[in-house]
Amino acid sequence: MTKAQTKAPLVAALLGAVAGFALSAQFSTPISAEGVPSAPPKPETAQDAIYDQLQLVGEVFDLARANYVEPIDEQETMEAALNWMAYSLDPHSSYMGTKDFSDMQTQTRGEFGGLGLNVGMENGVVRITSPIEETPAERAGLLGGDLITHIDGDSLEGVSLDDAVARMRGPVKSKITLTIRRPASGEGEKEAKIFDVEIERDVIRIKAVRWSAKGDVGYLQMSGFTDQTFDNLQTGVSALQEQLGEKLRGFVLDLRGNPGGLLSQAVEVSDAFLEQGEIVSTRGRDPGMADRYNAHPGDITGGLPLVVLVNGDSASASEIVAGALQDHRRAVIVGEKTYGKGSVQTIMPLPGHGALRLTTARYYTPSGRSIQALGIEPDILIGEETIAPSTAPTSAAHARSEAGLRGSLRNENGEDEDAAKARVEEERKRREEAQKLREEDHQLAYAVDLVHGLSIYHQLQAQGGR
Fold this sequence. Notes:
Radius of gyration: 35 Å
CATH architecture of the domain at 209-381: Alpha-Beta Complex
Low-confidence stretches: 1-34
């Protein structure tokens, strides 16, 4: 060290002694080795505290990985931590890993490469509930009640239902061999049949809407809101219009047990029955991010009476449809109060890591009401109680009538005997069908009766109330 270098600290010390308190106050911050004041420590911000917590998550993970009594599945553990972080916000927010995200996309598309089977687990064995119509499984002759014991020669013993379903899905045109155990039918068969069947996978489209005629009323059963829902609805309405023609009195839209799905499909389904007006609005944390969805001219039913069935399992998109049709007085809502899910989730893909499902908005019906935790109250409250089978005779031979009295006067309307008998027989069939429907599905039977009543009322209105 040179002399010049040794003098510098001495001069600084002497100046410090002369300046006294003033110097100490001026340089109250620490002095670096080079004699330059170092920056004061910044106070910890809320943001810093959050990053400390994130670092803590990593430390907990490392401790668990190194010290847990058994080796841990690292991927599964991290996904669980991410999922619980999202779930702590509300029950509908969640993190989806790559597989769960892929499954969700398949579900919302409503189509996939597969066999076309509805399956469940029974005593640890994969059991076919039913084959889907017009699919490879149905064409291969598989039946409800068949048990799947092997896939491509590999036993399914100990395999979860999800894993079994995943194995049965695959690229279109690829082949798969199922080993089937078919229980004895009891009709001359004493032993179960065991056989292999090779099936070629095809595109399986899940029908979100099924339809049928209930007498002269069109019945539309909607199970979910996927990419296929609106198209299925259009097809169903057209098929019923063609089948019933001028006899068609109206429609019943069944949303019971429908858990919801895509907001865009709920808007399209509502629009299908409305001519104008707001369908739904969504409002998030930022007031500038509010959205409104409006109907366009055109009612696919031509304005025929419409009754909507709901229950406690009708949720989300189902409630959007029911709320819109109720507020616009386009339909009568029948059944029980709905679930009450009035929030909107946005799917945010995380490339290579699945996706985040996050609640980003609340939705409101056209009248401005939020149904969050409240649900849609039906216009007519009617439970799902069953009706005991009727013991009263329904045969025309047992029905009391003036025509059955000896010597009764004949009708002078010119109706011949054969036509009269045919009319009586038709009425008998209608009574039997109505009674059977009441015993099978009391709510649906009520909805069909209500459509008939609304149809008569509309006819009277069209005639000017005469």
